Amino acid sequence: MESKAELSRIIFPYVRVYKDGTIERLAGTGIAPAGLDPETGVLSKDTMIIPETGVSARLYLPNSTKSNQKLPLVIYYHGGGFYLSSTADPYYHHSLNKIVAVANIILVSVNYRLAPETPLPGAYEDSWAALEWVVSHARESTGRHEPWLVDYADYGKVFLAGDSCGANMAHHFGLRIKDSELGRELKIEGIAMINPYFWGKDPVGVEVTDHQRKTMVDDWWMFVCPSEKGCDDPLINPFMDGNSSSFEGLGCDRLLVLVAEKDILRDRGRMYYEKLVKSGWPGTAKIIETKGEDHIFHIFDPNCENAKALFKLLGSFFNQA
Length: 321
Hints:
The protein has helices at about 90-105, 120-135, 145-150, 165-175, 210-225, 265-275, 295-300, 305-320; strands at about 5-10, 15-20, 25, 35, 40-50, 55-60, 70-75, 105-110, 155-165, 190-195, 250-260, 285-290. The chain is α/β, with parallel strands linked by helices. It has a 9-stranded mixed sheet, with helices on both faces. Strand 7 (about 70-75), helix 1 (about 90-105) and strand 8 form a beta-alpha-beta unit.
């Protein structure tokens, strides 16, 4: 009999896989309860979206919101490489409280199923289903509905947002929504992509010399999506010939790309911005780099000055007239 102590694989530095199939996550497993955050005055609550699969969401609303006041609606997809974290992760919970307070928005943080237990594209399917659920509240008759969305969400100002792999999903949904049934019901005003997770087999930029981190991110992707295309799978590499041409079909008017100077994913974020503005997409795009910071620094330290500046950028983006 093989015991759990027998390691099969290590996904450095976050996951241990054992020979009996057990997966041990070393990060992203903490739980912060929903409720009133005394520091920011933001309310949050959890709601089930699809009981059959366990897909859920954590909703955020400023406690100062007045009756019948309509706020910009942000659907947010958390990061974690598709295999870590949740909407209840204390790091995400605390940072999203701050974003909601600064931006004065209503936010839906989507809790999708993680890989490898639910292989990709499972996270995309779950997150798209959550978007459909959110949009259903714009109809006159929604059946089982969430009162905060009905009472406070401005469906004329809807945004997709996410960090890392969540930003990746926001990109794919921006492409998918334009010609979808959902797109005939809803117009996405903008997409905010924070330290977006795109990748590829052939190194670019700093990846050329940073062999250690290049190999590490390669392993992360192959762990969640061991497809025959590897790191050039279209889900993770939108820059391959034939993929980038579809950028012009991005279904929103505005896009904000936020990258960090020390992030191994920085150059892919820059590539994304450059490909988009050259694609013929008719919207307005902006890219901003935070100096001296690494990947999703604002999640790990939401109280630092650069995080506060990032939150203000997001607030301005969501509230631009």
